[in-house]
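[Solved] Which block belongs to which protein?

Original post:
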Amino acid sequence: MNKRELDPQASPAAEFGALLRTSREERGWTQEHLAGLVGCTSSHISALENGRRKPTQPISAALDRAFDTSQAGTFKHKASDVKYSALLEGFAQFVVQERRAVELRLFELGIVPGLLQTEEYANAIAAGAVRRRSITQDQADERVQVLINRQITMRREPPPLVHVVMDESCIRRPVGGNAVMAAQLDHLIEFTREPTVRLQIAPFALGEDRAFDLPVSILTLPDRSLISYAESAHQGRLERDINAVAAELADYYQLQTHALSQADSVAMIRELRRQL
């Protein structure tokens, strides 16, 4: 058995592996014994425990049966978290924390933030990536489904507080044609009517005074700790260092100060909607 220590905080795959190993060892089972219960090889169990193999839904369901956790779906839910990591490095960890957050601060440029996208808009963005051959159709479908699931979790009770600052490019960039854009702009206006949200546009006029050049999310967790997540084209990074996150939060507050008010932002969105 090639056993190596895993940091459950490192990734969803590591968290799954650590849970599997702990659950097995608590029962005094060998990897061979568990493999017999699940219907796979001991090397498969070892790879799962070491984070070298991603769990499938059938294996996760079999593990839930073996550990008598089918009702809670413990391994099935953990496997879903691992699955997200196929989308973008670092994204899986962010999704796990996003579900826990009591307050979200988002900045986006180029496209409407995912949590605010209509399904048609999200499909149009994914379809563009397929046409460019950046992703397959299956991957596009998965991205959209993950986005829908994230939006559903945001409708929990009590709802999180959501602050959104969008670069003006987000609402001016045409996506999916006039009908899709019209529905998306209507959705943004409707979003601003929620009592727990705030939406602002960072106008082009900010120029070099715009605080961020990449999308960023800052999450406040239930214990009031802060983490942030930023993306480049091919990688996402979850930042836990309090000094680094505090600096990003200060920049975000400054951005909110310079951005249009929500009323003026809605007026800009309405004017663009009128032109479609």
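(Second protein starts here: sequence line, then its structure tokens.)
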Amino acid sequence: MLTESRRRAYLSAMQVVHWLPRAELPFAAPSRPELLLPLTPLEEPALDVRPSAPAPSEAPQARSGERPKIEIPRPSVASKPAAKPVEAEEETPKAVRPAPVPPPRFALQLLRAGRCLLLVELATGQPFQSRDPSYLLLKDMLRAAGLPDAPQIIGEPVRWPLLVRGNMDQGPDAARDFVQGFIQARLEEAPSTCLWLLGLPAVRFAGGADEQAYYQALKLDGLGDAWALPGLELLMDEPQRKADVWKAMRQLMARWKTVE
């Protein structure tokens, strides 16, 4: 058995301060009666959870050593402007840039036959050859009109667009100005009684008209009298158009036919 001194040494080593034996221990010191009394629970004071408002006359004072708090007024939810719904927002119309107009593509050859100038569409883009069917048809038309059937070629073909790359304007208006300026320069060298326009590109960019003007006489500023005709390739593909060409030719033939 443990003596009282050794028992207390074990309990101290185990950091046991207060202990009660379940049975009477031999050689133990008598127990203190106050330790055997039941423990009474501590009563916690009731807390008042209601907020206490300071008296109107009393202003809250900051405690010594504490920094006074500055209240920053913040807008309430009711004072904020209501956000517009996405559907109601009006989109600012953006300036729509017009789509660039692609440059027209054509090749025209200027010829002279007697007192007439002929601006002829080159359907293949290549100059006339002596045995080309389209050139042979042109010779037949000149003979029927009473003009020399061996027209003189004036300069190189007018090909559009002029440049493959670059910032130069090569739209329809620029093409029209170029073709008309080219013909006016040739007219200053030798006047013409009538300007034949054969093919839609010639009618459009020299006469400022379209296929509705075929077989008609035109009066052009700076170019004088002109005659609009279908292209040589179209006349070969649609031979019935030759009758309309012959009908209009008989009415205009007096303008260029003279007695040599």
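Accepted answer:
You had them paired correctly. Confirming on the second one: Strands lie at 106-113, 116-121, 152-160, 194-198, 217-220, 224-229.
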